[in-house]
């Protein structure tokens, strides 16, 4: 029987290469069969039972981690707490690498020196001083970063405890990671380090990141993004006595106004944002420097290039306009557009086993996967041709307002636990449940 | 002889009321004569000689004070140093009042319980962390705040030493003040406290403030100003997944762009400025809040009202535009325009003795006074009908780039000392050189 054959193949194959590399030789049915094998497996059932009993602890740890602020470039405290949690759940080789990522290993039975990475990101978008106290209303938790991505950190801890409790052995060595710098100006610095500089560089053959969405959110494309800091400088001066001189805030306002009127297609999805503005020293001084931070993303490299070129045209045009509108006798407005983020794009083909396992696992549990492109830690391996997916493990449509102060996650037990149980299946399929 | 008569009047009059209140009874010639009397006076000549020898010390103290940062609302350190300097030059009743102003008295021979105030302001426009190191190139000193207004603090100390050294007695009690909060959001808080709450409230009958300009800069009109903090709020959200929601930065950009295109008349001089912008939390989040600080001034109340109304119209219009341009399903853009500065206007009539003495002193020394309106500590007494002038005591056209990082003052000895000597004359005329 094909299912059995498939299972035998899993058990006897010389490597996970069969799953990762030879997808074209497999059929969707084979993935469905493997998912069924896992769901019927006594160890998986034991893990599911454990997860049900462990739910309160996962939520408590999620709240605990959420309330340790992890602003961009300042994830140290949360990382230290997470490293201790990795040790407490029995991972080996626990360390915080030089970039700040938290790493730990759960050995497999037949690892080949390459790892399947299961990750979540430590950082949030929120600056220092943001109130990160978790507020609960019924089953809803409100806090900046609760959904994106702190509960995922706790979910991964729950998975490790479940594997241990159910005495599950995987064929592959698993590298669990809490990454830094996934958000904003972090520019994927954690995962970038992992794949290009760290000790596990060239040793990761498949990559899952558990992200902020629910179980039906599967991100199989890494959206390319370009981020700029655009700085206008001018001579500055007294708002009254030097009135009439060029004002960099006027140039910036003009640039934002023009940029806000840009057309971008809904498909391929293309977006643009002015996320941060800053500048000037006092209300009665013409600023000598103002700046904005701009984020642009697209599923299409051509569209990304189009909006990027438009931005670069506009910002120069706004400087020129201001230099024509007011006096430049003390100096002109100058503009600098500095590339501060350049996220690689890539995708994981439908034919990849990890894609098929995830699809089959969701469908077997009555979910309809919602595939999308995103900008996550998975961009990095995707851009390197390493199979990678960003998945969700919470209940579907049970979180929202990510990156806003009223971010929330509904952790109603039934959907939450079912989401965790379902997402565990592709993880076990790719790591090779023995 | 009119001059003598005039001098006798000075010596025998029952009060300074003759100088301050009965200008209409005097002719320009009488003021010219009094200026001549002072310039011929042995004590004045002695003071002039002293100022020449004291020059190095004035400059050194100006540099010392400039290098003690005095950002808005954070003048404490400079105030403490200045209070000590007031004590060192022998002022009595030296104190720092509850608002932070530094006060000290030099008693006159026939004070009537009311004071002539001679002031300069302690604060600069520059925020904490600004490099305030003074750089010297030849006779030019470069530093933020050097001209506006720190050298004036040192000049006033020089005047006190000169009066003491020349054993000059004035009829009037003099209240020397280093004020806080003259700049920006300080909104004249120091001088406002002095005239409306402090212990010398209702006890100041004439007011000189030594300001950043040179000797020919005489500010006899206090420009009214209105200052607003305009804040746009919106729902915020993820720059990619929530793309399409209203963005407060876009509304702000639109408002700035429209505002930058406002027409204001050159006469009556009317100005507008966007001085500070801030907002947003990360490049990949739609901001939930952004704001700008706006300064508007006019010699004409009607023009000030006109530009103020235009601003208030524009900021609402920009919110409406953004609410029409993008989705409001998670919430609309709201705008709040908060009045953060409202400086009173007023003027000191040409017929006032202090105006005439200043004019005569400048002309007697070969200077052509350049009268203007400004926004200085003198606005406050002017608005209360108390005679007040903002004068300069440095060389003419020897400073520039006020409120910018490359602010400079040329302290070439000849023009500097001549400026000081000239400005001393109206001070002595109004305080009554015995």
Automatic annotation (TrEMBL), chains A, B:
UniProt signal peptide: 1-27
SUPFAM superfamilies: Bacterial exopeptidase dimerisation domain, Zn-dependent exopeptidases
Key words, A-Z: Hydrolase, Metal-binding, Signal
Source domain of life: Bacteria
InterPro entries given in the database record: Bact_exopeptidase_dim_dom (IPR036264), Peptidase_M20 (IPR002933), Peptidase_M20_dimer (IPR011650), Peptidase_M20A (IPR050072)
Domain Peptidase M20 dimerisation: 224-319
Name of the featured protein: M20/M25/M40 family metallo-hydrolase
Transmembrane annotation, as ranges: none
């Amino acid at each position: 029987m094909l299912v059995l054959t498939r299972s035998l193949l899993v058990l006897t194959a010389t490597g996970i290469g069969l799953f990762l590399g030879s997808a074209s030789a497999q059929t969707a049915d084979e993935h469905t069969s493997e998912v069924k094998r896992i769901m019927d497996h006594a160890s998986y059932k034991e893990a599911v039972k454990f997860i049900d009993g462990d739910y309160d602890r996962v939520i408590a740890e999620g709240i605990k981690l959420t309330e340790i602020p992890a602003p961009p470039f300042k994830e140290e405290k949360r990382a230290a707490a997470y490293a201790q949690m990795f040790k407490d759940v029995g991972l080996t080789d626990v360390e915080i690498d030089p970039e700040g990522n938290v790493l730990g290993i759960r050995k497999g039975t037949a690892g080949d020196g390459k790892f399947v990475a299961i990750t979540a990101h430590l950082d949030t978008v929120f600056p220092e001083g943001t109130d990160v106290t978790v507020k609960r209303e019924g089953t809803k938790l409100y806090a900046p970063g609760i959904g994106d991505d702190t509960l995922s950190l706790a979910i991964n801890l729950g998975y490790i405890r479940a594997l241990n409790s159910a005495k599950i052995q995987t064929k592959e060595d698993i590298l669990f990671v809490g990454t830094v710098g996934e958000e904003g100006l972090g520019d994927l610095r954690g995962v970038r380090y992992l794949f290009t500089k760290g000790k596990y560089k060239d040793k990761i053959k498949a990559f899952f990141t558990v992200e902020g969405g629910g179980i039906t959110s599967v991100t199989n494309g890494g959206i390319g993004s370009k981020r700029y800091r655009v700085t206008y400088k001018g001579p500055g001066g007294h708002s009254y006595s030097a009135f009439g001189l060029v004002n960099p805030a006027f140039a910036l306002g003009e640039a934002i106004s023009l940029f806000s009127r840009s057309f971008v297609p809904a498909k391929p999805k293309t977006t643009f944002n002015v996320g941060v503005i800053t500048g000037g020293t006092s209300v009665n001084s013409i600023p000598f420097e103002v700046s904005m931070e701009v984020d642009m993303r697209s599923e299409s490299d051509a569209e990304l290039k189009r909006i990027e070129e438009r931005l670069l045209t506009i910002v120069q045009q706004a400087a020129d306009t201001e230099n024509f509108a007011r006096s430049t006798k003390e100096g002109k407005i100058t503009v600098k557009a500095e590339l501060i983020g350049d996220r690689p794009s890539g995708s994981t083909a439908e034919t990849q086993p990890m894609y098929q396992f995830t699809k089959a696992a969701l469908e077997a549990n009555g979910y309809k996967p919602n595939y999308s492109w995103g900008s996550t830690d998975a961009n990095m391996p995707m851009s390197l041709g390493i199979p990678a997916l960003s998945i969700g493990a919470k209940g579907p449509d049970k979180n929202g307002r990510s990156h806003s102060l009223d971010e929330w996650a509904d952790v109603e037990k039934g959907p939450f636990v079912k989401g965790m149980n379902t997402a565990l299946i592709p993880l076990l399929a790719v790591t090779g449940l023995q």
